[in-house]
Amino acid sequence: MKTFIAAIVLLAVTAALIIWNAAYINKIAEQMLLQSECFPHTVKEFDENHEEISAAADAIFSLWDECFGRLSATISFENIDRVDDAVAELYSAAKNHDGEAFIPAAIKFSDALRRLKRLENFNFESIF
User: Fold this and answer.
1) Does the pLDDT value for residue 69 go beyond 80?
2) What is the dihedral of CA 87, 30, 37, 49, to 10 degrees?
3) CA 9: distance to chain centroid?
4) Torsion over CA of 47, 52, 55 and 56, rounded to 10 degrees?
5) What per-residue confidence (pLDDT) applies to 128?
6) Is residue 71 a part of any domain in this protein?
7) Per the domain annotation, does 35 fall within a domain?
8) Local structure of residue 107 (DSSP, 8 states)
9) What is the rounded average pLDDT for all residues in the chain?
10) Cβ-count burial of 15 within 10 angstroms (0-12 exposed, 13-18 middle, 19+ buried)?
């Protein structure tokens, strides 16, 4: 009976950790997506709002850099590399004042982050 109770407790702890991990990944991804809402869709918009865009790119890069170690412990390398590359492209384009490179980098970043959220959340698509 003790073994059964220990197994149930272990199962509950494991399930709680899995749920906490998914919630943490979702929270970080959502924070980064919210910060990226100010990103422009044209080079002209990029040039007009460069300071705000650069600050948002800095915040995203800092958050990603801070959380990278914890996220990479449970996310597949393929997915973590996709987001990592997108964050690096986004940050470098913002820092170099390159609107031509920033627009596709922002699209790639949003796409990579949305895929990460979808794959790491609880839904039938990510399970099967």
Assistant:
1) yes
2) -50
3) 31
4) -100
5) 58
6) yes
7) no
8) H
9) 90
10) exposed
